[in-house]
Amino acid sequence: MPATACEDGFRARRLEQLFRDCFAARWRTLLVGGAQEPFYQPAPHDDGFHLLHYRLDYFASALHEVAHWCIAGAERRQLPDFGYWYEPDGRNAAQQRAFEAVEYKPQALEWFFSRACGYRFRLSSDNLAAPADQNTAFALRVLEQARHWRDAGLPTRAGLFFAALSEAFGTGVKADALAFEVEELR
């Protein structure tokens, strides 16, 4: 499976246009690359655009930030960075649990998006100091959520983006037909 952002087709700018096509008119939100760190900025006024910044030109970062946006409810989409905080690498056990409590759903959704465009998904506990057993528990939580959405259906905006990715990248995959295995998360 292709896995580098430099290969033809896996360019984050392609995702920006696809996101614009799906969401700019109705949700007034744009996906924008080039940031040193990902960040969501609500529109400064009613007729402006919300900006979803992803890291540099990283394809996976763009998919991940779109996953966060697709999950965020209307109230969270009015808050900078959806009202979340970020603790850098080196979190203690309690901080890591708090991170994983808000991160397993976006990562499960990013896994779907990766499948829709034929891109390799890489699970990230975003903490190099985390013990291996903690990563395993997080992986199982991501797996469980992915299987739940496969069986129950994706959130509305996520379903729209998944279908657009599948069509644009020519994979033709259907969300309810995907198989998810924990071995893929290692």
Radius of gyration: 16 Å
Listing every helix as H and every strand as E from the N terminus to the C terminus, the arrangement reads: HEEEHHHH
| Total count of helical runs of at least 4 residues | 5
Helix content: 40-55%
Structural class assignment: mainly alpha
| Overall body shape | globular
Number of domain modules: 1
Distance between the termini: 16 Å
This entry's quaternary arrangement is single chain
Explain this structure.
- The protein is mainly alpha-helical and 186 residues long.
- The protein has one domain.
- The protein contains 5 helices and 3 strands; from the N terminus they run H-E-E-E-H-H-H-H.
- It has helices at residues 12-27, 59-71, 93-117, 132-152, 156-168; strands spanning 29-35, 39-41, 50-55.
- Strands 1-3-2 form a 3-stranded mixed β-sheet.
- Helix 3 (93-117) packs across helix 4 and helix 3 crosses helix 5 (156-168).
- The longest helix is centred in the middle third of the chain and has 25 residues, at 93-117.
- The radius of gyration is 16 Å and the shape is globular.
- The two termini are 16 Å apart.
- Residues 1-8 have low confidence and may be disordered.
